[in-house]
Amino acid sequence: MKEGKTFEDVLRRSDETYRVLFEKNPYPLWMYDAETLHILAMNAAAMRKYGYAPDEIPRLTFADLYVPEDVPNLLQHASSPHPELVHAGVWRHRQKNGTIIDAEIFSQEILVDGTRARLVLAIDVTERRRAEEALRRSEYLYRTVASNIPSGAVALFDRELRYIVADGAGVLDAAGVPKEAAAGKTIREGLPAETWALLEPLCRAALDGRPASAEVPSRGRTYFVYTLPVPGEVGGISMGMVMAIDITARKGVEDEVRRMNEDLERRVAERTAQLEVAYRHLQALSAHLQSVREQEQARIAQEIHDELGQALTGLKFELSRLAQQLRGLPGGVSEKATALGTVVDETLHDVRRISSELRPAILDDLGLVAALEWHAEEFEKRTGIACTIKAPRQPFEVGPDLRIALFRTCQEALTNVARHARATAARIVLARTRDNVVLEVRDDGAGIPQAALTNVKSLGLLGMRERARAFGGEVAIQSAPGEGTLVRVKIPRRQ
Ligand SMILES: Nc1ncnc2c1ncn2[C@@H]1O[C@H](COP(=O)(O)OP(=O)(O)OP(=O)(O)O)[C@@H](O)[C@H]1O
Ligand SMILES: [Mg+2]
Predict the structure, then answer these.
(1) Domain count of the chain?
(2) For ligand 1, atom 8: residue with the closest CA
(3) Domain housing 144
(4) Which residues line ligand 1 (CB under 6 A)?
(5) Predicted confidence band at 305 (pLDDT cuts at 50, 70, 90)?
């Protein structure tokens, strides 16, 4: 009896123990009827977690805790016998306020007053699952990024310069180890010494907190390597990240483009040199033709002047004698002879003018200043445009070629004034500076249109420039609409 009492005692105490275990358990616990799913008991943690009050329990079935679409599964689970404690997996549970949580379920078949019932324990794993999901997602993203690095690798390394993880399509090529075997190996192991010599400073920079990058050649390929520090959770740099992208193909293209550029530049230089030579030849040819033409003109001028001039002078003399002899005869023959003499006189005048225009003898006889003065006078007479000249008093001697070149330039400039400028006055200035001979022809006319200055058909202007260039000089033209024109020729004095 004593034993029996003790046994009952134990039994009561054990009931008590189990009741406390059920009631005070921090995890939600239920007992429900396996047939009807009616909840027979529900601990405080379950009521707290699911938001029900004790007086609602009698009306509650276990199915009320599930989302409707899972109830058929629940019924199946409840009806199958489970003598042992089973881990029933993770289910979606519904709190009273409608919030869905993920509950990991353990259940055990029991008998309560002869009724088949279930004892169920639930652990809320919503947060854990969310964290797992986030981790899976970030893992997935990382894998996607890493495995899509087209021909390179990305890796994390620790402060001992050992791989923590390496990934990417080109790990074996870039790192010299397969990605599965990289973890724990030092970066140095897989690399040629000269590659490591370039890479090590980049890795160390990352561990010192500085991102770094460089082009690193390795085993016949070229990588663009980028390293960056990875801060630890408690501050400081716990590891570094290294990315290596294979840029061999791009480098190849770059090299090819550079080679082509160099080749092109060389050919352009060759062509330019050829053109320069051709231009110098043309210049020489043009100068030669110019001087041939000048000589020819001088010869013709001389002949016209001498031969034609003398013949006409003789004719004029004969005609005036004839007129005298015929004086008094009827028919006015003497007057006719005098009139013919006047025609011959005019012709002689024309012949002299033509001869002078071909080659002013004054240029060779009296020099450039006298020739320009004479030309200015002629110009004024012929055109009615006032033409003044300023030139040094003392003898102004330049070589015969430059003399004729300057004279022709002045002639062309004045012809342009007469033909295009609609000017009232022109002025010629001839001067000598320390280094240059300068000739200026200025007018107060309409100015040269901008287009005419650059027009390749402006052969008069081009001719002036060519003449100047043949003496190492240049022509500057200043002109504005309505403000006249200044043509300025500058020739270095060394000739
Ligand atoms: N002093 C000037 N005032 C105004 N326009 C001028 C003057 N000089 C030249 N021009 C303009 O510049 C153009 C080019 O002159 P350029 O001497 O080269 O050719 P051109 O006189 O027309 O022909 P040519 O070959 O017979 O000399 C002229 O057609 C004219 O429009
Ligand atoms: Mg002209």
Answers:
(1) 4
(2) 416
(3) 140-246
(4) 416-417, 419-421, 443, 445-449, 452, 458-461, 485
(5) confident
